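Now for our target.
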Amino acid sequence: MSQFVLHDELWWVSEFSCESCGTRLCEHAGPGAAPDDVRQALLAAHGSVTLRPTGPAPGLVPVLRALREASGVSLPQARELAAELVRDGLAGTPAEMGLLRDALHRRGVPADVQS
């Protein structure tokens, strides 16, 4: 199981194999957010990281735009995420937080991912 960023989009892959018969299958390989069970397995396997601002943001609008573009959330959800980002940081998989960090950087918002 893995998750990565490709062309500014979050992708995930889930594969499994049968030790008895040697069959290997790919459950999914493509763009989009991973289902909760896959995301929880990724967090269990790789741990979570936290995205935090590293300096003052040029304003709320660039933060909201970056969060909406990267995660596809509504404006009210982006406002909640922005408040959480400033207050405690945003926690998630390394790929999720890397995608958000890059979106913030493109909008001139300094942020970094910490283990």
